[in-house]
């Protein structure tokens, strides 16, 4: 769509975009402009050469809005001079206010038709969309809403709910009597977000009980009227006969799509099942969670649901332990997490890859042998998966079979090897045995191409390797993570539009894809 093309170009593809670090002057300009213009980030981005609308919005919401007051106090009138007439020139979208008559009509229609029939209700208003009618009623006119001051208990509930639900404001508001979606959202971003870690650290398992499905909700979902005047809750008619589903499983919903996010009901059931059966019984647990695999159940529990998990800030001691353990154990994050009470495997891995691997060398130099004492015998006790090395005979056979059958026929090729999967055969050939591969030193031009390609393609190593003659997927991936990732911003800042030409589809590729033999 045109809107998608615009967003992609101005946010990612525009060669004038800068990717270097933010300066203090840029931060000051964003705060000053937002103070005068509001959240008109398209206009603010025009005042910051090389910064896109999306990245300016991201900088504001994640970093600067919490420092706004202090920064504004330190500013003088001259700090707004750069704005010029932009506040006057930039068109401002006018939104028509709701009148008292419209509000009264909206309340009357909801009483007659029930919540949820917003398309029908919107037909009674000129220029009002169904979503606007819904938002106006649920956030302003619903008689169950309260405007009293927020309590400490409500704040704790919002923090607890956001840690489990993410930014699903509608779900949260159902569990907070008298609070609208908008009120909950504004409370989170204006007050609670920047102190959430401290609050989470004080919560116990019982503080999450209000999220359980057995707890009655403040409002259970849209209420609609049937033709006979009966209530529908959440769009599903109540079933006193039990024919829509019962203990025998008749009428139960089909297994859900594995891509579906976990629901609160599933989380509650998962916690209950683990408490009954114990950790490790994931196959047994998964049988009682339709559509979920044992591996998914384990990952969800140890990463999100386990009540012993900590969500407070990382300490220097924990960072030191992760670096020391990774130095001795490698990326065995399941074992490393066991050495850090309250930290899950996924969050330890996340901490390592995003923060600590770039500080590893400096931290290791400052460590002594005693800093490894906490490991004990874990390196010996933790089972290590053995991988059988490829023999010379297997390599020779693999090369011969690829010559005969062509690349891409990996399932057929794998049948000639005992205990080798098609993916292993493919990886072995493309990363080690392909005669077109080179092992020469990396050139500056290749490094610039990898950085340019990664900024456009993401971590699609196969696509990148096709554009780098003689380099395998694995080689490109290792080069990125070991050398280029932490200096990518500096390299990108030196690139011009022509440095991205090699990515165009008209440019011939080093290898255009799997080569297969035809029957002839």
UniProtKB/TrEMBL annotation:
SMART domains cross-referenced by the UniProt entry: SANT
Source lineage: Eukaryota, Cryptophyceae, Cryptomonadales, Hemiselmidaceae, Hemiselmis
Myb-like domain sequence ranges: 14-64, 90-141, 142-192, 254-305, 306-356, 382-433, 434-484
Start and end residues of each stretch annotated as Disordered: 219-259
Residue ranges annotated for the HTH myb-type domain, each copy included: 14-68, 90-145, 149-196, 259-309, 310-360, 382-437, 441-488
Molecular function per GO: DNA-binding transcription factor activity, RNA polymerase II-specific; RNA polymerase II cis-regulatory region sequence-specific DNA binding
Cellular component, GO annotation: nucleus
Superkingdom field: Eukaryota
SUPFAM superfamilies: Homeodomain-like
UniProt cross-references to InterPro entries, sorted A to Z: Homeodomain-like_sf, Myb_dom, MYB_TF, SANT/Myb
The protein, known as: Uncharacterized protein
Pfam families: Myb_DNA-bind_6 (PF13921), Myb_DNA-binding (PF00249)
């Amino acid at each position: 769509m045109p809107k998608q093309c615009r967003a992609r170009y101005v946010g990612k593809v525009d060669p004038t975009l800068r990717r270097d670090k933010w300066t203090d002057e840029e931060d000051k300009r964003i705060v000053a402009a937002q103070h005068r213009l509001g959240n008109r980030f398209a206009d603010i981005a025009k005042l910051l050469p090389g910064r896109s609308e999306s990245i300016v919005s991201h900088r504001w919401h994640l970093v600067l809005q919490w420092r706004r007051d202090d920064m504004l106090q330190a500013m003088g009138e001259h700090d707004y001079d750069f704005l010029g007439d932009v506040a006057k020139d930039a068109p401002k979208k006018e939104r028509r206010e709701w009148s008292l008559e419209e509000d009264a009509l909206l309340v009357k229609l909801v009483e007659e038709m029930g919540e949820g029939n917003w398309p029908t209700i919107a037909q009674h208003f000129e220029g009002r969309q169904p979503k606007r009618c819904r938002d106006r009623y649920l956030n302003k006119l619903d008689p169950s809403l309260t405007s009293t001051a927020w309590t400490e208990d409500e704040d704790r509930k919002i923090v607890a709910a956001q840690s489990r639900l993410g930014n699903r404001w509608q779900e949260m508001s159902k569990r907070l009597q008298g609070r609208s979606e908008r009120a909950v959202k504004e409370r989170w971003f204006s007050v609670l977000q920047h102190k959430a870690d401290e609050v989470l650290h004080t919560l116990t398992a019982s503080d999450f009980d209000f999220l359980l499905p057995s707890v009655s909700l403040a409002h259970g979902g849209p209420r609609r009227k049937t033709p006979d005047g009966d209530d529908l809750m959440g769009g599903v008619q109540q079933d006193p006969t039990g024919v829509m589903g019962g203990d025998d499983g008749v009428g139960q919903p089909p297994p859900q799509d594995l891509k579906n996010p976990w629901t609160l009901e599933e989380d509650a059931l998962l916690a209950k099942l683990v408490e009954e059966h114990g950790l490790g019984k994931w196959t047994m647990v998964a049988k009682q969670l339709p559509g979920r695999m044992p591996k998914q159940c384990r990952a969800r529990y140890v990463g999100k649901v386990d009540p012993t998990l900590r969500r407070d800030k990382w300490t220097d001691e924990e960072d030191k332990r992760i670096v020391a353990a990774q130095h001795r154990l490698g990326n065995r994050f399941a074992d490393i997490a066991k050495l850090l009470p309250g930290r899950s495997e996924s969050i330890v891995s996340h901490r390592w890859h995003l923060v600590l691997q770039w500080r590893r060398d400096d931290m290791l130099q400052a460590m002594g042998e005693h800093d490894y004492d906490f490991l004990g015998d874990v390196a010996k006790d933790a089972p290590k998966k053995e991988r059988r090395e490829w023999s010379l005979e297997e390599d020779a056979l693999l090369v011969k079979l690829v010559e005969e059958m062509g690349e891409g026929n990996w399932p057929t090729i794998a049948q000639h090897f005992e205990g080798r999967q098609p993916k292993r055969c493919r990886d072995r050939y493309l990363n080690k045995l392909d005669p077109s591969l080179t092992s020469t030193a990396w050139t500056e031009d290749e490094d610039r191409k990898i950085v340019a390609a990664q900024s456009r393609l993401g971590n699609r190593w196969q696509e990148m390797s096709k554009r780098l003659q003689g380099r395998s997927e694995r080689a490109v991936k290792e080069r990125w993570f070991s050398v280029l990732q932490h200096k990518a911003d500096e390299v990108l800042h030196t690139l011009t539009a022509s440095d991205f030409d090699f990515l165009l589809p008209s440019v011939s590729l080093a290898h255009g894809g799997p080569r297969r033999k035809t029957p002839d």
